Amino acid sequence: MTQTITPVTHDLGQFEVRRALPARERTMVGPFIFVDEFGPADLTGGEGMAVRPHPHINLATVTWLFEGAIDHRDSLGTFATIRPGQVNLMTAGRGIVHSERSPKAELATNPKMFGMQTWLALPDGREEIDPAFEAQTDLPWIEDGNARACVIMGELWGTRAPTTTHAGTIYAEILLDTGGALPIDAEADERAVMLVEGAATIDGIALNPYELAVLAPGKAMRLASDTGARVMLLGGEAFASQRHVFWNFVSARRERIEQAKQDWREGRFPTVPGDEAEFIPLPDRPKTVSYP
Question: How far is CA 4 from CA 69, 190, 198, 239, in A?
């Protein structure tokens, strides 16, 4: 490992959100510029996740659940219920608005919440592409003895996911049974792993839960567990140009973020069909977590 990042934890009442990126020590790993882990949590008796409509530019959001369900609505007219095994990729490009809410009808029977939301910066020359949404459920699994991995985005060990990538990306969920082990190859420019359940080691070094362990570049490594674990692998191509972040806006140009701020203040972003009654105002100082 070259670096270990301890996430900032925020208690939101019914569940906790742990943000590993961006951090003071590091802003990106490959195209990943935000890495949030939330739960595991029991939402019984509450409203669950209730993220009102808010905007994004120049990035793509990736939602991946281990437990629970989230209703996604966006300004393209998309409505999708995110469930485990389904990756939701929302490409903001020149601008999109969306909301994320726990399905009310399911909270009584399915009150669990556990998952990841990551943001990927769009590469130079593609920041202002048209907004888009896709949900992929036919994702490849790779099995090797007591270990298996779901390829969520990009290519792993010669197996590629159908999910759109705008830059070189690797994103995978790795499940290790008792005594399970897998090699972590060195093809990506930048790589990191996060232990989200159980216990595991990377090249014999113990991983701490929810910490982002940034791996040494160009070095093949071995992920292993004596008792079982769930580990997220993420990374991809290193960006040559800096990205700026304000609230839900990411861009290579500060003036583009200023424009987006003004557009949101003045109501120039599109609305979300079926969820127009409320929205999140532009903060004077952005909160470190955008789940209200």
Answer: 30, 14, 18, 20
At 263, give phi and psi (nearest 5°): -60, -40
pLDDT tens digits along 115-138: 999 999 999 999 999 999 999 999
CA gap 75, 133 in Å, rounded: 10
One-letter identity of residue 246? F
CA distances from 84 to 89, 141, 150, 158 (A): 14, 14, 12, 24
Burial 217-232 (b: 16+ CB within 10 A, else e): eeeebebbbeebbbbb
Question: What's CA 30's distance to the chain center, in Å?
Answer: 13
Structure tokens at 68: 């629970």
Q: For residue 94, what is the DSSP state?
A: T
Q: Which residues, in sequence order, are bridge partners of residue 87?
A: 136
Measured from the Cβ of residue 210, the count of other Cβ atoms closer than 10 Å reads: 17
Residues 60-78: pLDDT tens digits?
A: 999 999 999 999 999 999 9
CA 24 to centroid of chain Cα atoms: 19
Return the CA Rg of the chain: 18
